[in-house]
Design a protein that fits this description.
The chain is built from 7 helices and no strands. With about 160 residues, the protein is mostly helical. Helix 1 packs antiparallel against helix 2 and helix 1 crosses helix 3.
Amino acid sequence: MPRPHTTMRQIRNVLRLHFGEKLSVRDTASSLAMARSTVADYLIRARVAGLSWPLPEMDDDALERRLFPEVAKIRSAYPQPDFEVMKKELTRKGVTLQLLWFEYRELHPDGYGYSQFCQRYRDWRRRRDVVMRKTTRPQRRCSSTSPVSRSRSTMRRP
């Protein structure tokens, strides 16, 4: 199970208690109600980043970049499907993801399995920016959305 998100304030407290107050990993973990492995991981990351207590003046974002440098994205060994073409094909009648996967596997026999193929398509769809463009032309009259007619009689009743 993944560990819950730790705030930078908690990480600063880990570094303060361990390096500044000279508490052990076990005592630091118990005082902050964190797992020992989590505390040990943060301490290793701090040592690799060359950090000790007191921390140099830096904001939370800078500290996070030092402790968690971006890992280079690993290119997949599998050929990537063309998701734009897949999206257009799926609008046609009778075309399913399974049918598109069969075609993909004919072209790339060592490509993704069906579950990964579907998962990557769903991930791609979620990452797309959803935009609804509405083009309008200037009109001579404003239209009313109320059902009441605007033309009323100006005559008064006796």
